[in-house]
Amino acid sequence: MNKVNGIFPIPAKTLGNFYKLWLEFIRPLHNLTSKEIEVTASILKHRYYLTQKISDPVLLDEILLNSDSRIKIKEDCNITSQYFQVMMGELRKKRVIIDGTINPKFIPLIRTGESKFDLLLHFEWDVDK
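^ that's the sequence the OP posted. Answer follows.
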């Protein structure tokens, strides 16, 4: 019988902070710097809000990184346009952004209207070793 034997609540307080914590948790998968995490978290937060109004994934991706959204992201992160371009280049190199869209493996699936995200880690090993 399988049962959950370790639950660790992580209070994020805000959606933007949740995305930062999420990206910190999966850091071994991307090796982003702290500033790259901040920019990516802002992009993911804006993406989440857009999903509340846009169900077409192609349209969502087009709007997510358009000039209006970029302005909001730069304001969120308090960075210049030039620095934002550097960050976007790094996110492309690190495959967080692929062909103008966010790599799906970095997008946690949060249901509309939910204020929590459950992540299940399943570890297995050979008991004889």
